[in-house]
């Protein structure tokens, strides 16, 4: 035993470079995954046209920065999901219900603005959209089954060039960015004694749908937690009634509402716990938990350093003294017509319309998450099938 230890010690002294090269070889990161498609589920943070196709389309100045026209995105340009698709080498995802000029060869987007994880037929979840997470998963199942029929024929036809192959679903990456509207609903009922139970129920419902997607063949899951909802400018007192007295601790150092962010943190903690449990249940799957809260909060905390204006400022819309006229809308306030336009330079703003982020902010955040810096386990999205 002593002789072996001595030999090892001598080798370390005489041949240190050899040992370093062996160690580097041992910890070499895994190869990028060969994803065949990308399927996304979420709310307005990743909706690329569902609500615009289903209801009223957006109007300018939405989309003005990159697309130079409204394209169904709640931003002046690209969303985080757009940058994720580009990073993986895919085209922008078409909304599932968008029937004009769409291609689903490399995946589809089921996200819809105002969507929630919970069904919206209970008091706390009034309003919103019919496209809940459960409905989005049902749409995916229908999409998968219907596209498979075209490949059960003897030969491909002209339509099959625009849809995924049956084998692509197991080799796809499934991304999720949903839950913010559920937390907003809980916050709006802040006096509820059962808010903790509701948050647990929200996470349980999310878990059920992920399990169902696994049954349908999904194997790589990229799951975003919810962002700092208390840092959305429309939630900040600066855009609401003036001179309101705030108790100590109501706001943090960035002007964000503490109790609202605490709700988001509770949801995120329970979400991470359930992701860990799912890993033990599904050893054949890869489940990546992405800390979007921390990524977004880092940007908000370092706004000036990163070249942005004060994070409470809103590029498009009118938000003063508790009056909120959202981007592209108009209203009469104190006898005066308000028709708010966008700011001169959206690239300097974090918040586009008080709720959603600008393309510049989305780009900043996307660059921080795709490399695995905010992921558990810390894998880049291109390597996320190896967890």
Automatic annotation (TrEMBL):
Residues 1-24 form the signal peptide. GO terms for molecular function: hydrolase activity, acting on ester bonds. Keywords: Glycoprotein, Hydrolase, Signal. It comes from the Eukaryota. Pfam families: Lipase_GDSL. Coiled coil: none annotated. CDD domains: SGNH_plant_lipase_like. Belongs to the 'GDSL' lipolytic enzyme family. This is Uncharacterized protein. It comes from Psophocarpus tetragonolobus. The lineage of its organism: Eukaryota, Viridiplantae, Streptophyta, Embryophyta, Tracheophyta.
